[in-house]
Design a protein that fits this description.
By secondary structure, the chain is an all-alpha fold. 67% of the residues lie in helices and 0% in strands. It folds into 2 domains: 182 residues, no CATH class; 171 residues, no CATH class. The longest helix has 30 residues.
């Protein structure tokens, strides 16, 4: 089975590798990073789709599906589980969603392993240390472990949330690796802009973690209106149970059923902190628009912020439609990507080194 899975993962990587090999880009290594970055972004979105369609346990074992390399081979077991519980976590469709997600993850892992190999092989002729590529490889290994624990620990919220944050950190490091293959900026950026950017990135990751906590606890519809929450500005909150990190899905730390007030708290904190994030990122983007070489990226941040506001509110008013929920997750990943680009561009500026 493991050999079959490895072959499938490599086959999924063939097309992106072909794009690199047949590209007119002189710097093939840069192209490899760009393609890996694109696939990683897609993988994050598909991971959101997997989570939102409740397909995370579509195959209840790991790394295969009922001990097989693909749902075709495990069709009888999957079908038996679906017949027993048609609306349960194991169905033919959900099994395919989960396994395609794993195949894509394996292909990204293979491409990152290839990057590391090239970085070490050409370490004497390349201007950059191979340790960034090595760090990415290590993180992918850790991410794979959390992917396994997501299944074996039955979607435990803290495991799934860490899995999401690690994916975004990998995305950010790939942005860093990709951008350092290009000439560095010579712009002298304002002191305020330079120092607020890292803070904006950290605050954004905090908000994504809060959003992941909402999603993994199935709290997206705990408040059914907006800007009020169930008709109240500040509903009855239950921090005692809402942020106990080590617990089973739907349970308190002591094993009892999680009260609905805890889900309301999880939802309300995410939507309230969103305004802090919106204000900080909008201000940082405003500062970035004053510099010619960060204006486009800053405009992108403003556009995605607006999209996030619209999709976040629409998710509540339209009772969490799948397409809008996936788009909201994609917007979060896109903000991470854009802020990573801004942080690298400003931090690596030649003018700022003096």
């Amino acid at each position: 089975m493991l050999i079959q899975l490895a072959i499938i993962g490599i086959l999924f990587a063939v097309i992106p590798l072909a794009v690199v090999l047949f590209s007119k880009e002189q710097n093939k290594y840069k192209k490899l990073i760009a393609v890996t970055l694109f696939l990683t972004f897609d993988l994050i979105i598909f991971g959101a789709f997997t989570r939102l369609t409740d397909s995370g346990l579509g195959c209840p074992d790991w790394p295969g599906c009922y001990g097989e390399a693909n749902p075709f081979q495990a069709h009888s077991e999957i079908k038996a589980a679906e017949t027993l519980l048609p609306t349960g976590p194991v169905t033919v469709a959900k099994a395919w969603v989960e396994m395609i997600h794993r195949y894509l993850a394996m292909s990204v892992g293979f491409l990152i392993m290839l990057q590391m190999g090239i970085a070490w092989w050409k370490r004497k002729t390349r201007p950059f240390s191979p340790w960034l590529a090595t760090s990415l490889f290590v993180l992918v290994g850790i991410q794979g472990a959390f992917g396994a624990w997501t299944v074996t620990m039955k979607l435990q919220p803290i495991i799934v949330t860490i899995h999401l944050i690690l994916a975004l950190i990998i995305l950010s490091l790939l942005v860093w690796a990709w951008q350092r293959e290009s000439p560095r900026s010579t712009t002298k950026y304002s002191f305020k802009f330079r120092n607020l950017l890292p803070l904006a990135f950290i605050v954004l990751l905090m908000q994504v973690a809060l959003g992941g906590w909402v999603s993994t606890n199935y709290a997206a519809l705990a408040c059914h209106d907006y800007p009020l929450c169930n008709g109240e500005v500040v509903p009855q909150l239950d921090f005692e149970h809402a942020y106990v990190l080590w617990r089973e899905l739907g349970r308190t730390g002591s094993g009892d059923f999680l009260p609905f007030s805890a889900l309301i708290t999880i939802h309300w904190v995410h939507r309230t902190f969103a305004w802090v994030v919106f204000a900080l990122l909008a201000y940082v983007a405003y500062l970035g628009r004053k510099h010619a070489d960060t204006k486009t990226l800053s405009n992108g941040v403003l556009a995605v912020l607006l999209m996030q506001l619209i999709t976040g509110v629409a998710t509540i008013y339209f009772s969490w439609p799948l397409a809008i929920a996936v788009l909201h997750n994609a917007g979060a990943a896109l903000l991470v990507l854009l802020l990573s680009m801004l942080n690298y561009r400003v931090r690596s500026s030649v003018a700022n080194e003096s």
